[in-house]
Amino acid sequence: xxxxxxxxxxxIVLLLExxxxxxxxxxxxxxxxxxxxxxxxxxxxxxxxxxxxxxGRRLRGWAQDTLQELNLKxxxxxxxxxxxxIATTVYGKLDMLFKNHTYKPGDLPKKxxxxxxxxxxxxxxxxxxxxxxxxxxxxxxxxxxxxxxxxNATKPTCFGYNCSSSDKWKDALNELYDYVKxxxxxxxxxxxxxxxxxxFSHCTAESPDTLNFTSIGDTLSKNWLKMMALxxxxxxxxxxxxxxxxx
Length: 247
Ligand SMILES: *[C@@H]1O[C@H](CO)[C@@H](O)[C@H](O)[C@H]1NC(C)=O
Ligand SMILES: *[C@@H]1O[C@H](CO)[C@@H](O)[C@H](O)[C@H]1NC(C)=O
Ligand SMILES: *[C@@H]1O[C@H](CO)[C@@H](O)[C@H](O)[C@H]1NC(C)=O
Ligand SMILES: *[C@@H]1O[C@H](CO)[C@@H](O)[C@H](O)[C@H]1NC(C)=O
Ligand SMILES: *[C@@H]1O[C@H](CO)[C@@H](O)[C@H](O)[C@H]1NC(C)=O
Known about the structure:
Helix content: 55-70%
Signal peptide: 1-21
Family: Belongs to the Izumo family.
Pfam families: IZUMO
Order of helices and strands: HHHHEHHEEEEHHHH
Strand content: 5-15%
Shape: elongated
Organism: Pantherophis guttatus
Bound molecules: 2-acetamido-2-deoxy-beta-D-glucopyranose
Keywords: Signal
Number of helices: 10
């Protein structure tokens, strides 16, 4: 039986049962204990016609819908503490919503939607900020994160342009080439690992042999010089957009 064919009452009881695969907010260890406490509240209070099915659907689909709504061009990796902070904020708002007896019961779905949207914005900001912070170094960098898609630990790798001298820049380029050459040689694994390096997210190369390191070095160096020249004039985020090599 698929998720959609369950009756609503049953589905609310089964809120956290096999239908859901792990996703994003659900990667937080306290997700289950909080979300399982909302279902009984939904059935106990008299909420008004049509409210319970809509609210139940929103709560039941929370984790999967979150992943879908994130809609980012980069992979949704988020440091665990940031995820936890956001999750705790969301639980706080939901706890408050179910405790508050002063709003019209019929407003529940709208209020749930607005908490949901706020959550999406917080997650997007945290994911993008972590990435930009990583790219604001010189050369290769990593950070510890958790994948919103699988809840597995990940270690996103960034290549940053914030080098203070040509020597540091040259070292950073060498480090990048060594990294790219040292990636797992399975063509598909290699290609996917390459695109995880933000600088190379647009590359379609299938193996190190098809990358022209001379041309990559040229464009990266040109971009680096351009960025050094613009550094005092532009916002970081605008600068980072300049930086993709021809590959
Ligand atoms: C989960 O919630 C409990 C009680 O609110 C809290 O003490 C604990 O730190 C939370 N778990 C994590 C991983 O923070
Ligand atoms: C309870 O709901 C009412 C009506 O929406 C709102 O004005 C009030 O701020 C809420 N109280 C809390 C503590 O969230
Ligand atoms: C670039 O590096 C310098 C020196 O390491 C540091 O002070 C500065 O904050 C960095 N810039 C950004 C945007 O992170
Ligand atoms: C995530 O971790 C699980 C268990 O540790 C593993 O079976 C699975 O292959 C991992 N998924 C990815 C995409 O790495
Ligand atoms: C690599 O790129 C350089 C500079 O763009 C170009 O001169 C050279 O012919 C390219 N090499 C190959 C094998 O395509």
